Amino acid sequence: xxxxxxxxxxxxxxxxxxxxxxxxxxxxxxxxxxxxxxxxxxxxxxxxxxxxxxxxxxxxxxxxxxxxxxxxxxxxxxxxxxxxxxxxxxxxxxxxxxxxxxxxxxxxxxxxxxxxxxxxxxxxxxxxxxxxxxxxxxxxxxxxxxxxxxxxxxxxxxxxxxxxxxxxxxxxxxxxxxxxxxxxxxxxxxxxxxxxxxxxxxxxxxxxxxxxxxxxxxxxxxxxxxxxxxxxxxxxxxxxxxxxxxxxxxxxxxxxxxxxxxxxxxxxxxxxxxxxxxxxxxxxxxxxxxxxxxxxxxxxxxxxxxxxxxxxxxxxxxxxxxxxxxxxxxxxxxxxxxxxxxxxxxxxxxxxxxxxxxxxxxxxxx
Length: 366
Description:
The protein is mostly helical. Among the domains are: 1-97, no CATH class; 115-175, no CATH class. It has 17 helices and no strands. It has helices spanning 3-15, 19-35, 39-52, 59-75, 79-96, 99-116, 119-130, 137-153, 157-174, 177-200, 206-224, 233-245, 249-266, 269-285, 289-301, 309-325, 329-357. The two termini are 37 Å apart.
């Protein structure tokens, strides 16, 4: 994959006569490494580059080291620390009056906050980037991707599709395989979430399920063609979930058994919880009632106040099925009620997200 991008960057570094240009190129290299999951290597690159940087480096470029470190923290799964660091860099970039670094920070924060469910904050940062003349293609890519994800999460699928298409145009202009893999992955994950919710409400149709499966398979296949591609464990877990919806339980179980340990290690905690619950469903359908109950109980123990409502709903739904099979009808009904309540909470959150996204699109966080 981005051996090509890294090799091109290395050549640019070697040819850079200006120390300031070399420092910026090394910052870019560290960001590439972080996006590939090589976060320790990225931090080492930044350490060495900062040590070698001239004392008279422009203030905004010196500050960009902190921006690159925040990116590395994010890809190292230190999400809260990354967000706090990026917010600090944004404040300092504004104080310096550097709009280029400011839009880089805001585009990153749009994605950081979208992941955390902060609809208003993510949307305002993304719109600020898109409303700033001269913002870089990479900043516009991240901002548009964040907005597309926000609309998808809010079940505003028409606008999400439009924005994903717009994102694809920016990605093609970038010529960046990492960005293309990320765009394909996010789009596919969103379609899988759509299928998941439609199934829960009894509204899943064959086309929606097929679209989700096709998108996940295409995303995985694209990444597999790339050298040093980011890990696709999360996409494979969601493909397993789609196999469950297709009633292909053995195929789903095989995916869960290979991908769950990888995904757990990568820190995808909420999706791992949902995958464990769906693995219980597979075991139940394949006749292993005891294994299903044990797996559902493990998933249930992982729930806490930070667990998203849709994940809670999936866990309680599968716990109910396992309890019903074990002959505990009363307890099963309690979990079915909790599942329905969680889906209702999720639907309410989506309505609120749609309301927030309809707020004045010209408003910014400046």
